[in-house]
Amino acid sequence: MSHLPVTVLVVAKAPEPGLAKTRLAATVGDQVAAEIAAAALLDTLDAVAAAPVAARVVALTGDLDNAPHAAEIRRRLETFTVIGQRGADFADRLANAHHDAADGYPVLQVGMDTPQVSAGLLADCAQRLLETPAVLGLADDGGWWVLGVHTPAAAQCLRTVPMSRPNTGELTLKALRDRGIDVATVQRLADFDVFDDVMVVRDACGRDSRFARVTRSAGL
């Protein structure tokens, strides 16, 4: 397949113990939560690296030096353009990341909480984005896992959306449509934030994925 003229943007946080996946860490401990977060990040980066798209960007926050598997993460990032996150809160960081990643292509943004994402699914979303002004993939917890827009200006509406709420996905969809942007919804996925999410996401991952291996070895 030829490369689709789309940039995939991964908004990611260094999986530092004590700072990564704190709601999950409350159950499994800081180190195990960080190991799981590192596995999810690496699985996500592998999928993006294999997707047939024109450009790949990671907007990163945190200190990789303190993260498990830091060397492996750094090697994987060598094939990406890495930029820092900036902004007062998560909504600002998302909107700014769209601005900073823009290089003339539509931008398809994902996080690191859906390690079951595949190169094929990303390609399908990218193709859909080329056919419509915006795409949005809702998450089972009420948020969203993927957002695609053609211009950074379209992503500015994120600044008005309360994040990490049970209705963040629906509010994001409304914010886009209130700006007159036609939005196509794509496949819904589960993401992981708390203990009960882990097995649901693992069941959607390949058995040999890092996420599956790490969560199994942790006895989850």
TrEMBL record:
Membrane-spanning intervals of the chain: none
Q: Note the InterPro entries from the entry.
A: Nucleotide-diphossugar_trans (IPR029044), Trfase_1_rSAM/seldom-assoc (IPR018641)
Keyword flag Transferase: yes
**Which Gene Ontology terms cover its molecular function?**
transferase activity
Transferase listed as a keyword: yes
Provide the alphabetized UniProt keywords: Transferase
Its name, as the record gives it, is Transferase 1, rSAM/selenodomain-associated
